Amino acid sequence: MNATATTQAIGDALGGEERLGPRRGASALRSIGLIAVRNAKKVARVPSMLVSAAVFPVLLIVLFSQVFRGVAENPAFPVGVDYIDYLTPAILAMVVISNASNSAVGIASDLTTGMLDRLRAMPVRGWTVLVGRSVADVIVSLGQVAIVVVVAV
């Protein structure tokens, strides 16, 4: 049996050609989607991550809107601008930056736990792991941005 026939037999046993790897039709978009879903499920299944993702932006708005309320009474503060309207973009930036650091920590965690080694053994392009992780983190960030906008209004 030659190498091509062996590869074809393994591919058929695994469920067709799409499982054989990037050279045989594995879609990069499919890989990105699967990795993004994996990371999104991870956030949804761990209650502490879900609660912190929902509570952190609200806590920032409440904390900063009460602690620095006196800034709005300063004569140098722009006239006709509510303090919450002034504060909301800063909170949005803090949430996005926090999620970027959480993404870096998550990738480092995947590296130390051996998850990336497992993915390297699969027919997945290396860059799709980072893009998939980023897509999942952008989804979480969009959820947090929506929470900030709802609470700020």
Structure notes:
The protein starts with a helix and ends with a helix. The radius of gyration is 22 Å and the shape is elongated. 75% of the residues lie in helices and 0% in strands. With 153 residues, the protein is mainly α. Residues 13-25 have low confidence and may be disordered. The protein has six helices and no strands.
Provide the fold topology:
Elements: H1 3-14, H2 28-45, H3 47-67, H4 83-113, H5 115-120, H6 126-152
Helix pairs in contact: 2-6, 3-4, 3-6, 4-6
- Profile the largest sheet: none
What's the total number of strands? 0
Structural class: mainly alpha
The H-and-E topology, N to C, reads as: HHHHHH
> What ranges have pLDDT less than 50 throughout 5 or more consecutive residues?
13-25
Q: What fraction of residues sit in β-strands?
A: under 5%
Q: Whole-Å distance between the termini?
A: 68 Å
Mean pLDDT: 78
